């Protein structure tokens, strides 16, 4: 087991700079999720740990080993691919055993390890099948088994749930979390799915245009986003981001010097008898809550998460209130200016 | 009505394709001057032509030569083709596209155009008059096609499978033999079969690069069969020989056809 460390890592593909200086430390046993919009470099960063790409500059360490140029199989990492990438011409057994066979492990040991891992993932009844005879969920388990059997120091997951249907995705997500708890091994997980990112991560790394925008506990990133990008990226529906001058009923004293943008999450706004006036434009029913989309007097849109059963109708004139303590402020460059809710 | 029309069309095409071979079979079963009478049904079953074709010349030797040459060409073309396709399909390097086009262009030259150059090459390498010279020249002609087909197949394989194997510790050789070879088997079988047929039937190079009857391959041996006098062509022997050498090809296609069809239609790849 080992942690992972990036020191000033850059990656260029031709003239395109995909990673622009990554300094990041992943602790031993930590579950770290890389999240960001497509093209942000999160998969490239994962592939750099795997050794499937080499850094254009900078160094990568796994444990005490500098692995910047080490070939993939010697890094002690295993990867679960998005498409599972099982070998279609091999049985499940041989798929799991392939890495051990190449490492010239003894036949009896291979057999014992394959069977132990298969039993752990409840695929021991499928060992003679070919991948094409398996369901999506079973293929996923085989892919995970193939990674586990090599007893890696670091586990890499590249959007492993994106090919599963919604129900299976939730179930597998929980299983991966359990697996991490039981094995205690370092895991690095790439996803663009916020729920996966928030629920799985010990630490969340938000990437954007090849840079780390913010890294930390999911709840910290959610409550105290460092900048406009993180504020807008995490949370669904997304945070309302408005020009600082927008009249949403904040006392003048609450506005810090240099505030350019104010951000307020839909759940921090309440429809009330008094406050700022607005018109209801649209109501989205979520079951446990409703998202009420308002338009302010000047037409600025604003989303409110509304819990009570009785929702206003489209076209209604309503009033809303805001707790100044829950408002985020950002300067002209998009960086956070103090304030915001403290993390409980 | 449409079914009837369909079967009518199929039988016309089949008859058109099969008639020459059928006529050869019928002719091969005739003896003496019967050969010059036009018959559409075999009147007698006289197998003496089949005996004579093997006794009057080293025809068994010629068949063995053809097997060696065709089999050798297939092996060389497959080995080089797989390696080249791996490089052209997966390794990024400058000039890859133009190299692929050059390879394709090579296969477009008519045989006659390269005959003299090939002759110099074969003689320069000291292969003139031997079977190795034929293997070399057939490989030159069939390799471009093999490379193209295998390259396009390799490009359709998901890169992630290969990356998974790399993570599992596979080097290039293991990748080729344990991952690509099994996955490309359908493509290898079809291109290999075509190479075999081309090499088996080839005439011009086989005629030019061999000297004695002992070295000849089947097509040349059949064409150069001589009768009792120089004005007589042993049609019976020629037909019998043609039938004998066509059978292995038919057998090969029958053996491989299920594999070919299932391989090409099932996609075989999608994890």
Quick overview:
The complex is a heterodimer of chains A (344) and B (271). By secondary structure, chain A is α+β, with helices and mostly antiparallel strands.
Please, could you describe this protein's structure?
The complex is a heterodimer of chains A (344) and B (271). Chain A has a six-stranded mixed β-sheet, with helices on both faces. A five-stranded antiparallel β-sheet of chain A has the order 13-17-14-15-16, with no helix packed on it. A four-stranded antiparallel β-sheet of chain A has the order 2-1-4-5, covered by helices on one side. Chain A has helices at residues 42-50, 92-102, 107-120, 136-148, 166-183, 194-200, 218-223, 228-233, and strands spanning 4-13, 16-26, 31-35, 57-62, 65-66, 77-80, 154-158, 186-191, 203-208, 211-216, 240-243, 261-264, 269-272, 276-285, 290-295, 301-306, 317-322, 328-330. In chain A, helix 2 (92-102) packs across helix 3 and helix 2 packs parallel to helix 4 (136-148). The longest helix of chain A is centred in the middle third of the chain and has 18 residues, at 166-183. Chain A has 344 residues and is an alpha+beta fold. The two termini of chain A are 32 Å apart. Chain B has 271 residues and is mostly helical. Chain B has a domain at 59-224: Orthogonal Bundle (MetI-like fold). Chain B contains twelve helices and no strands. Chain B has helices at 2-28, 48-55, 59-90, 96-106, 111-124, 131-156, 159-167, 172-183, 185-201, 204-208, 218-223, 235-266. In chain B, helix 2 (48-55) packs across helix 12 (235-266) and helix 6 (131-156) packs antiparallel against helix 9 (185-201). In chain B, 31% of the residues are buried. The A-B interface holds A 50-52, 72-73, 77-79, 81-89, 98-99, 102-103, 131-132, 139, 146, 150 and B 158, 160-161, 163-170, 174, 179, 182-183, 268-271.
